[in-house]
Amino acid sequence: MDQVGMGNAEHQGALTKGEVLPRPASSQSEGFKQGRSVFNSLISGACAGAVAKTAVAPLDRTKIIFQVSSNRFSAKEAYRLIYRTYLKDGFFSLWRGNSATMVRVIPYAAIQFCAHEQYKRILGQYYGFQGKALTPVPRLLAGSLAGTTAAMITYPLDMVRARMAVTPKEMYSNILHVFVRISREEGLQTLYRGFTPTILGVVPYAGLSFFTYETLKKLHAEHTGRSQPYSYERLAFGACAGLIGQSASYPLDVVRRRMQTAGVTGHTYGSISGTMREIVTEEGVIRGLYKGLSMNWVKGPIAVGISFMTFDLMQILLRKLQQFSHSAR
Fold first, then answer.
1. Which runs of consecutive H residues, i.e. helices, occur in 167-271?
2. Are 175 and 100 in contact (CB under 8 A)?
3. Biggest alpha carbon distance in the chain?
């Protein structure tokens, strides 16, 4: 055996003792870029969710209270409820349950936005659109899959938020207390009560929201020649996306809230169809299944617009910071 062969043999022998051949530089670079992309998406998504939900928290709490009660909704009644809450419990009581919202929304938004970026990449590779805008069907599919992934992982936190929003502060002192009491008094399965209507609502909501936003950005780029919209344009695109997505999935959102809060409102809702039937019988279709939708048309577009805009701007900021740190080395 020549010296080269002996060297190879010695190297192979060394590998069997625990050494690992180094990955090619291109493969390492690709893996690093992918990891950094995931990290950026998670951070940007978390910030987007936190900023958007905090901005509309008082409206969100008011909407949930109307959704789970049989009282008729109107803008006047909503204002009265907010004002009474402010007088009785103080200004910051309007954000009651927001800590539970943050505990759910931050991971939910982080997972949803990150999953959406990954599903876009995977579907782009599958359909041969790598690096280009997806066609409508994969675009809709990417949004639906992202929303479903996030909802499955974070659902119990949404259940806790709903309970804290509709109960007096004496009943549950903090997020952990809600988990403990529900588990002890109603069983662990209660944490996933209303999960089916949630998923059925998330599929059209997330699908249409992401689809609308991505489509508007694509049309904007084609008509203006600018690949990056201005901040106010992102906000407007996100608002349109929220309006369409929330209107399509709203009845299932009402059903989900009723099932989540059944233990504290004195009702017993066993199934989606049964809950819908009871709501329609007692309150009617529009006043029951679409109760609070007009408030959602104010709250929803603002929240979704802020969310999409914040995500995009955070992505741009993180990329610039990374480029700056790389060039400074």
1. 175-185, 195-224, 231-260, 262-265
2. yes
3. 92
Give the pLDDT band of residue 26 (cuts 50, 70, 90): low
Residue 120: what residue type? K
Model pLDDT for residues 77-86, shown as the tens digit of each residue: 777 878 887 7
Output 84-92 pairs: Cβ under 8 A, ≥24 positions apart: 89/169
CB 241 within 8 A of CB 210: yes
DSSP, residue by residue, 151-179:
HHHHHHHHHHHHHHHHS-TTT--SHHHHH
When pLDDT is cut at 50, 70 and 90, the band that residue 24 belongs to is low
Tokens 């599903």, residue located: 119
The residue ranking higher by pLDDT, 201 or 260, is: 201
Report d(CA 264, CA 182) in Å as an integer: 10
Q: What single letter denotes the amino acid at residue 136?
A: P
Q: Which residue has the tokens 């051949």?
A: 21
pTM for this prediction: 0.72
Amino acid (1-letter code) at residue 290: Y
